[in-house]
Amino acid sequence: MGDFEEQLGSELGSIRDSGLWRELRNIGSVKGSSIEHNGKKLINFSSNDYLGLAVHPALVDAVRKAMERFGVGSGASRLVCGSLKPHHELEEALADWLDAERALVFSSGFAAAQGVITSLVGRGDVVIIDKKVHASTVDAAKLSGATIRVFHHNDLLSLEKILKWADSKNTRVLTITESVFSMDGDSPDIESLVELKDRYGSWLMLDEAHALGCYGEAGAGLALKSNLADRIEVRLGTLGKSIGAAGGFVCGNQMLVDLLVNKARSFIFSTAPSPLVSAAALAGVNLIQSNEGEARRHKLWDNVEHFQKGVASQNWPVAPAMSVILPLIFRDESKAMIAMSLLRDSGLYIPAIRFPTVPRNEARLRVTVSASHSRDDITALLSALDDLLVEVNL
Questions:
Q1: For residues 334 and 194, is the Cβ–Cβ distance under 8 A?
Q2: Is 134 a catalytic site residue?
Q3: What confidence tens digit (pLDDT) does each residue in 85-108 have?
Q4: Hey, what domains does the chain have and what are their CATH numbers?
Q5: Is 37 a known active-site residue?
Q6: Cα–Cα distance measured from residue 367 to residue 24, given in angstroms and rounded to the nearest whole number
Q7: pLDDT, tens digit, for every residue of 208-257?
Q8: Is 56 noted as a catalytic residue in this protein?
């Protein structure tokens, strides 16, 4: 026991000394654009609830009705006796919304990525990933046993070199990228990427986690906005961001879903998602496609534009592309932590993002503006950021 504690203590000490210590924050409550932290109300600019649906009365009511009928838990995996009506209704709604033959819901986005990647490729196959894909994709690619190759972020020339190499292997090749990257907020050229993967016979998996609800007609994401959904073999999504609930899903053709039901270990050997969560997600999917959903998207992008113009006028180094995610790069971890603390003192909640979530020397405040924010909220943030430029000596 002593050796165990000694070694863990040494490792934890190294984390502290490097300025990368993490701890859980006890959030007392969430209401719209604000949260309660340590008894203090703060305006929250860190959430992925881009449309503000997580506390919407329609989702709360859906949970209440589902609880009365199904209770709280599913009781078993989907293949035993846990495949309940809310799961099937949600999957049908997702497939209809995203113009896919089928959709399959998982307990989390992490589980969805693991399930689909390990089901499609294995030893002897090749997985090609963008350098900045989500950790769940990286871990799933490693778990699959396939040969992993990494292309430079959003660099199609780098991708083509690897595709040429993989084309000579006479094996399955799966290329994976994201339609909106979670830490930088940027997007690839999806049309050129699809043309490239078709030219070399690769399959494509597109993670739409941060695009769904926000981009495209009815918020259906960038694959449909580009009219390329039928040429993308696998689309991954989440239920815990714009949709306002929790969980993940995969959509594609019937055979893909049949394969996952029969091979995806993170689906087969996991208790089914709570029927309450699936009912809430279904309400979120329906809301996103409604007139109210369109109004919320309009407000979201109006808020994004107002904020981005504001930080640009303050000479923050920000990307020109409009995105729901706007990183303010500090590089130095200690400066990012100081900035987080100063903003919290000003009534604003934006945790610092550091290695290993982002590469070393790319520490940042990852600002996310939502449809829940008022113009006064954004004005308060811009005012605090203006002061911050001087305080942290950027």
A1: no
A2: yes
A3: 999 999 999 999 999 999 999 999
A4: 25-50+294-391 (3.90.1150.10), 57-288 (3.40.640.10)
A5: no
A6: 19
A7: 999 999 999 999 999 999 999 999 999 999 999 999 999 999 999 999 99
A8: no
